[in-house]
Amino acid sequence: MTMKLSKLVVAMTAATAFSTVSPMLVAQDEGLEEVMVTGIRGSLQNSAAIKRNAGEVVESITAEDVGKLPDPNVAETLTRIPGVQGYRYGGEGASPVGEGSGLTIRGLSGQTASRLNGRTYFTAGGREFNIESAIPGMIAGIDVFKNPSAKHIEGGIGGLIDIKTRRPLDMDERVISGAVTARYNDFVGDIDPEIFGLYSETWNLESGGELGFLFAATQQKSHNRSDSTPSNTGANLRRAVRADSAEYTTLAAANQSYVGRSDVWHLVDATASDDPSNLIATTSQNAHVFQEDIIRDRKGVNTAIQWAPNDDFELYAEGNYNYYKYEQDYRFMIMSDSRTVQGLETEAFDTTEAWVNRNANGGENAVLATQALASGTFLNSTFNSLGGKENRPYETWLVATGFDWNITDRLNMTTDVSYVKADQTQDNRSVTLRPKVGNTWDITRDLKTSPHNISISGPDLADPNNFVFVDYGNGTHQVFDDSGYAVQTDFKYEVDGFFNAVLFGGRFASQESNYNNYSFGGKALTTNGSGLLADQSNAISVADFAELTETAPKDWVKNKTDFAGGYLVFSPSMLHGDALRNAFPLANIPADGSIPENLMARRYAKEDTFGAYLMGEFATENERIRGNIGVRIVEADLTVEAMVNDSTGTTAIIVPNRESTSYTDVLPSFNITGELQEDLLLRFGYSKGITRPTLGALNPSISVSDTSGRGSAGNPDLKPLEADSYDLSLEKYFGPANYASIAVFNKEIDGFFNTLESCETVATAKPYSGAEDNGCSNGQFFITRQVNAESGNARGVELAVQTFFDMLPGAWSNFGVSASYTHVTTENPIVRDGKVVNVPQAFQSDDSYSVAGMYENEGLSARLVYTYRSDFILFGVAANPAVGRYVKGYGVLDGSINYNISDTYSVTFTASNLTDSAPVRYVGEPGSVTTGFQNQYYINGRNFAVGLRATF
After folding, report:
1. Residues 925, 913: contact at Cβ < 8 Å?
2. How far apart are CA 200 and CA 318, in angstroms?
3. Is 854 within 8 Å of 863 (Cβ atoms)?
4. Are strands 721-733 and 934-936 parallel, antiparallel or unpaired?
5. In degrees, to the nearest 5, what angle opens at C-alpha 466 toward C-alphas 576 and 528?
6. CB–CB of 819/800 below 8 Å?
7. Cβ neighbours of residue 211 under 8 Å, at least 6 residues apart?
8. Coil, strand, or helix at residue 12?
9. Residue 302 to residues 117, 164, 200, 396: CA-CA distances in angstroms?
10. Which of 131, 521, 709, 934 could form a Cys-Cys staple with 101, CB 3.0–4.6 A?
């Protein structure tokens, strides 16, 4: 199959070495006439026209003017689209894990394909492009295809996000545009710049035709705060023993200086024989103090050249550069509460078997405890101070060239070649400080407030003399070096009859990924380079190197608790370079630039795909019924390599383990649109799509224990998730920018990962001969690995409406409204206690909506948008609700005002998160196991920006 399909693709691209869909053809159907209207109304008109004329299910957002999307963050803009839910991390639309931008399309997270002008575009280390790194000023529009047809590049069962940049021949003969913006976060108090510039020129050539050139560049910097209160999950059942009881005197761990006190208790671990009425759940008790500064730096360059010697031929070349640096300075107090509590208060809460183990034993859902900790002062407590810095730069280049050629009046050919280079480095370093022996604090906690109220009394938290150094670690230090290229040719042949066009094409693409890891930890900062002793006899006082430290801000969580911060930490600014290495020569810290690699973590992947499609477009004579039907066939050839420990010889050695695999997917699609009456459309769509496993998930690593006879292995034979997607929608249009729609969708998904356990012979290990029974024979190891096993689904309904009130008199016609609502449910099968159970997808809210009020006249426009999403699971379903985390539903209010001073100049003002809301985390799960146990309160502040824009 490989050879046949390869030859087919080569034959289809033989006319030239170039390929990939012509960018503008991917973005919208050829029959769509561009509406050259700027502003909010013009943006909505373009979006409505794209939606109406598309041959498939698509939602679009177009820029209101050159360099002006509706929001200062692309991920936030996308949440205005029905079916798209977003996450705000560190004050902006962003992922909490640094990839995928936290976007969920129709309930599916991590299942999105990213495109730039129709081409595959990715961030190093993954298959998706990290949308949070995109700069709004560089973007002309965004299309979200929820059920793509056969002509689209495969790769995302959730949806396909296509970012469109500007090209010179789509603009006026000469456009010069620039903007200067000042950004401000009210929690940080700093002003950060944003600069944008664009030059576009189109020349009418003496020989006929046109030549266009465009160059745009931008830089955007933002500084946000992220203060939070992460606390413990789990039931953590305790029994309180009062200090005036006889039992208290028998407890070796209890502080006997409190004997006889009626206001002091010691918390002991619960036992099976304890009466539930005497037990207390201490869930969320130990809230830490986290303060983070998050600095984001974005830079972008876009350039394009187009030459159209006549109306039938166009040659182009374009390039795009995106740089995004995520920088985080963090100052943490890692709290360690004592078991001695003064003024203990509890509240009623039934800790049940369902809560702690999902009632795995069956039968009665027994109550294990009847109380939960509410407040108290934890006497003689301590903590560690952690000062750290993460630098995470991402860099992505894309260059492309190709042509668009009307060979005859009926036959069109487009060809494009593209190359992507993507790099990412994540470098996270920290130093731990500890109180000197004998220093303790009394920590008062009130778990009934939001955030949990905390007060701390004891020695000066900012005095270097009260602390000693512990250790230094470079806990995360990884480098991704990825690249890829694609060659594609597409043909469109117009015919007469019910089928009016035949589209076909072929594509070859290759993607490579290299991963290296340099992480290390535990470099002791002591007098002898060994670990800090319990008596601290080898400790180095922080006072000896006070210049390496700083105090955290004194307005922690905007002073919403009695404790306001001001504690001592190692200065994050001192963590890069060799300052620490020079100060502590006995710590054996490697020099920057000479950090040894963790060879066992190295991995490599190369994936080649060969694809071809055939699609027919059809329409009745009056075009009351139109649509397309097609199929895409894709073969993937994968080579992956991991480093493994070979212990079969006398001395263990690290050797590469390389494996190869291939598979073929057949992906049909069908779309049909019927005009029931004028401006009333009924649309149906079906397609089969895939999401390939991440390249890291395909890593063929294997590790075993000679002691237990157990081990784990990667699986390079993992296949893509497959989804059969069905859409049915009704759309009513009642003006150029006005429409209302309702859509129902169903995605039947197959191939979710589950864990397989089996006895295997491991080629790189000697036969197992340990004393511990692993359930296997003949020297085999008990191995766990991920396999494709289960089926799930995503189902829901979407409602949308947008309109200006053109029917109203006078100034009232300048007002408008835009709103969308989505209800979605998902079933994600996982193995729990040997049984397959269906749980919701991570980051999926059952309900979400966005409501915008708009105003626009000739010189002034304004928009106010409220976006809400209901409770959702964070990261994934936990083993039981007591250790699970979810985000309670919350809404965010954003606004913008634009005033045109003249035809050339305008001023803009934007405000993000006017409600000062954040995704606060709780212990439990959405639905029947929600709780009031706050796991992590967040506050980020409000963002404001004012800018001056000029277009000539």
Report:
1. no
2. 13
3. yes
4. unpaired
5. 60
6. yes
7. 202, 203, 205, 305, 306, 307, 308
8. helix
9. 12, 11, 11, 12
10. 131
Reduced to 3 states, what is the DSSP secondary structure of residue 245? coil
The CA R_g of the chain, rounded to the nearest whole Å, is 30
Window from 87-101, 171-185, 698-712 with minimum mean pLDDT? 87-101
Tell me the residue type at 924.
Answer: G
pLDDT at 99 (0 to 100): 62
pLDDT at 18 exceeding the cut of 70: no
Q: What is the pTM of this model?
A: 0.90
Query: What amino acid occupies position 810?
Result: G
> What residues contact 241, with CB distance under 8 A and at least 6 apart?
247, 248, 251, 254, 265, 266, 267, 268
Residue (of 497, 280, 479) closest to 375 by Cα position: 280
Integer Cα distance of 62 and 84 in angstroms: 16
- Beta carbons of 525 and 587 less than 8 angstroms apart: yes
Token pair for residue 552?
Answer: 């955290």
Q: CA 666 to CA 638: how far, in whole Å? A: 18
Q: Which residue has the tokens 């477009």?
A: 617
Q: Which burial class, exposed, middle or buried, applies to 220 when counting CB atoms under 10 A from its CB (0-12, 13-18, 19+)?
A: buried
- Nearest to residue 471, comparing CAs of 431, 434, 435? 431
On the 0-12 / 13-18 / 19+ scale of CB atoms within 10 A, 229 is buried
Cβ proximity of 811 and 736 under 8 Å: no
Give the position of tokens 């191995």: 783
Q: Give the containing element (helix H, strand E) for 8.
A: helix 2-12
Place of tokens 């109203």: 808
Check: CB of residue 138 under 8 Å from CB of residue 498: no
Of the candidates 830, 845, 937, 923, the residue with the CA atom closest to the CA atom of residue 884: 923
Work out the widest C-alpha separation in the chain, in whole angstroms.
105
**Greater confidence, 103 or 833?**
103
pLDDT at 92: 86
Q: Name the nearest CA neighbour of 734 among 816, 839, 671.
A: 816
Whole-number percent of the chain with pLDDT over 90: 75
The pLDDT tens digits of the residues spanning 53-80 come to: 999 999 988 887 666 777 788 888 888 8
Residue 623, pLDDT > 60, answer: yes
Question: Could you give the CA distance from residue 132 to residue 78 in angstroms, rounded to a whole number?
Answer: 11
Instruction: Calculate the average pLDDT of the chain.
Output: 90
Determine the 3-state secondary structure of 600 from DSSP.
helix
